[in-house]
Amino acid sequence: MKTLKSLLFAIFSIVVVSCSNHVAEPVTQANAKPYPLKTCLVCGMELGSMGKPYSFVYQRQEIKLCNESDKALFDQNPDKYMKKIADAGTNLKN
Questions:
Q1: Number of other residues whose CB lies within 10 A of the CB of residue 35
Q2: Which of 17, 18, 29, 82 has its CA 20 to 30 A from that of 91?
């Protein structure tokens, strides 16, 4: 029984120490990767042509859309739109 208590204490200590080393900094607009395009990610229109763009952070990436209503479309298939950003980054490097 004493060995079991020691083992459980050791496991608990390891878990607590490892979890405390992985406290994530909250992602904000300020520390997200900047948006690489000059157009709305969803509709492709030039940002700012319809007023101030709607922006938010998704998976540490700043996203900009023409307006908040485009976010519903983004939310339906975020992988599709994130691929556009990845492709834009690849094109900028070439």
A1: 19
A2: 29
The pLDDT assigned to 19 comes to 46
Closest CA to 37 of 85, 86, 91, 94: 85
Q: Other CB atoms closer than 10 Å to residue 29's CB: what's the count?
A: 11
**Higher pLDDT, residue 65 or 28:** 65
Question: Across the chain, how many H-helices and E-strands are there?
Answer: 3, 2
**In which domain, by residue range, is 74 found?**
27-93
CA 63 to chain centre: 9
Q: What is the pLDDT of residues 36-78, one digit of tens each?
A: 999 999 999 999 988 999 999 999 999 999 999 999 999 999 9
In a domain, 82, yes or no: yes
Let me know if residue 47 belongs to a domain: yes
- 49 assigned to some structural domain: yes
